[in-house]
Amino acid sequence: MTLTSILSAADIANALKDCQAPDSFGQKKFFQICGLCKKTPKEVTEVFYILDNDQSGFIEEEELKFFLQRFSPSARVLTAAETKAFLKAADDDDDGKIGAEEFQVMVLS
User: Fold this and answer.
1) pTM of the entire structure?
2) What SS3 state is found at 88?
3) pLDDT the model gives residue 68
């Protein structure tokens, strides 16, 4: 499964274009532009497992830094401030990583 089997390539490109500048990434806006927030809970969970690069069942801070590059290899890495803000927004149990359920709640809320 690939991201473009769930999200349109054009929507992904538009979302990436919107946050090209450092410190311009906001997860809510990104999920809206790429269309992820309009997907079913099952589809959001499928996207989570695609983004979980090491297949640990969690997206850790180190993986989160490369979040945009999972959508396109030519995208930039998130800044330290963006990474920490993203993690804080999703990590409901404060374990320092994002689980599938936390990701789904963040995307669909």
Assistant:
1) 0.94
2) helix
3) 97
Q: Angle, nearest 10°, between helix axes 80-90 and 27-34?
A: 80
Chain centre to alpha carbon of residue 73: 14
Q: Residue 32's closest CA among 60, 11, 9?
A: 11
All residues at 6 or more sequence positions from 90 whose CB lies less than 8 Å from its CB, including other chains: 27, 98, 102, 103, 105, 106
Residue 1, pLDDT above cutoff 90: no
Find the angle CA(28)-CA(5)-CA(51) to the nearest 5 degrees: 50
Asked if residues 12 and 4 have their Cβ atoms less than 8 Å apart, the reply is yes
User: Scanning the structure block, which residue is given the tokens 């999703």?
Assistant: 90
Find the DSSP H helices in 19-91: 27-34, 41-51, 61-65, 67-71, 80-90
* CA distances to 33, 42, 54, 79 from 18, in Å: 9, 26, 27, 15
